[in-house]
Amino acid sequence: MRFDEAYSGKVFIMSRQDAEEAEAIIYGMPMDWTVSFRPGSRFGPNRIREASLGLEEYSPYMDKHLEEVNFFDAGDIPLPFGNPQRSLDMIYDYAKKLLEKQKFPLGLGGEHLVSWPIIQAVYEKHPDIAVLHIDAHADLREEYEGESLSHSTPIRKTCELIGPENVYSFGIRSGMREEFQYAETSGMHMAKFSVVEPLKRVLPELVGRKVYVTIDIDVLDPAYAPGTGTAEAGGISSKELLEAIQLIADADLEVIGADLVEVAPVYDPTEQTVIAASKFVREILLGWVQK
């Protein structure tokens, strides 16, 4: 799949016609091959697109309109069902093409393992990268039941690739004791339970740096986002995540890519999860895409 090919289906509201002229490319990664609890996040990208049709194009948070951002929705990468390594290779190749074209990659998951090949591609182009990770789960395991390719491992892999001191996790409230011990001893930055206040403290350290942001929808309390594979009680509100996106937008740093993962629509017949996710995507487009 070329970066400028769109599939025949729903696209995010106000997606442009010309990929070559676009500043940002939205792409889906419909993979849930390694989940440890409930599958279904492979259906997230398309349902987020469908929910976007109910959005206002104007954001009162950013005081911007989607017409001000030139973006192209390329649809989903056609990942081979049940084949994690081949799927990750395809995501890596696609992300690398976007970066070579100087596009802002905005990925929709899919399970959280899909972030790993994107971060690999970003690191190859920008070895001074910092990663901001907003999630309920630490995702610092080396393996899950003998499998190193697991949605519980991408942040550990990221720490080993770019250095733990360049990884900043927020909202974490679930994980093995060993994961929290690793966070304490490795030099990575982990803020448990909350997002906004720790972000306010950390963002000044990142002034002038290039950052990649990965957001797992389960950072939200299940009251706000029941449609996810591994829901965790005690999370933040949609309002707090919107504020976090705004804080990153206002900070003096360069966001060079992002993803939003783990939306599993089947567990939320009210559709509040995909509606919230589509709003977060709108705010990311308006706040983080470089002009």
TrEMBL record:
Enzyme Commission number: 3.5.3.11
Entry keyword Hydrolase: yes
Gene3D superfamilies linked: Ureohydrolase domain
Pfam families associated with the record: Arginase
Domain of life of the native organism: Bacteria
Molecular function GO terms recorded: agmatinase activity
Alphabetical list of InterPro entries matching this protein: Agmatinase-rel, Ureohydrolase, Ureohydrolase_dom_sf, Ureohydrolase_Mn_BS
Enzyme kind, highest EC tier: hydrolase
Keywords: Hydrolase, Metal-binding
Similarity-based family: Belongs to the arginase family. Agmatinase subfamily.
Protein's recorded name: Agmatinase
Gene: speB
